[in-house]
Amino acid sequence: MNDPFVPKQMFFTKGVGKHRNNLQSFEEALRDAGIASYNLVRVSSIYPPKCQIVSRPRGLAKLLPGQIVFCVLAETRTNEPNRLTCAGVGLALPADPELHGYISEHHGFGMTQRVCADYVEDMAASMLATTQGIDLDPDKAYNERKDIYKAQGLVVKTKAVVQTVEGDKRGLWTTCVAAAVFIF
Fold first, then answer.
1. Which residues, 6 or more positions from 5, have their beta carbon under 8 angstroms from its beta carbon?
2. Within its chain, how far is the Cα of 45 from the centroid?
3. Contact 109/175 with Cβ under 8 angstroms?
């Protein structure tokens, strides 16, 4: 079945924006990420079977200004000087390409890029594992759970795209975004 609303490709992107107005800082972050000229529709967390991951330039080349574009989007905004913000998306792919994977998003404060990346990868992998009937101990470290996923042949690959930024020292609105963008 060839459903035109099942994405065939996806790319990751991220960006930062600063402006005296909140909304315009968000616009600047979308520009930095290369996705400001599209009508973005936020969707939930399913990575379609057989979907191909492409580079940002290759993905952007397939989109037209004004097009309705579906994406999993994480965003954080602050006007507090020096406040660390993060936005990240994580992906977990199953061993069987006929099955769907999971995309997770997180936006928050105080996480470094590495911590946020581990967090979104862990969430995506955990969601995928639970669909396959694996009970997970939430008190175990992500690396321990990752070994369980691999030992049972569930998760082939995880990936994270994260943007962190400190709030502007002058108090300008500062926004960071991370997105998984679908192409049909």
1. 184
2. 9
3. no
Q: Is 49 exposed, middle or buried (0-12, 13-18, 19+ CB in 10 A)?
A: middle
- Per-residue three-class SS string for the chain: CCCCCCCCEEEEEEEEEEECCHHHHHHHHHHHHCCCCCEEEECCCEECCCCEECCHHHHHCCCCCCCEEEEEEEEEEECCCCCEEEEEEEEEEECCCCCCEEEEEEEEECCCHHHHHHHHHHHHHHHHHHHCCCCCCCCCCHHHHHHHHHHCCCEEEEEEEEEEEECCCCCCEEEEEEEEEEEC
Q: Beta 9-19 vs 52-53: how paired, if at all? A: parallel
All structural domains of the chain: 9-183 (3.50.20.10)
Residues pairing with 183 in the sheet: 9
Residue 60 Cα to chain centre, angstroms = 16
Report how far Cα 114 is from the mean position of its chain's Cα atoms: 14
Q: 59-85 in b/e burial notation, b at 16+ Cβ within 10 A?
A: bbeebeeeeebbbbbbbbbbbeeeebb
For strand 68-78 and strand 46-47, is the pairing parallel, antiparallel, or unpaired? unpaired
Are 105 and 89 in contact by the 8 Å Cβ rule? The answer is yes
> Residue 159 corresponds to which tokens in the numbers above?
């990936």
Q: Which residues of the chain, if any, have pLDDT below 70?
A: 1-4, 135-138, 141-143, 145-146, 148-153, 155
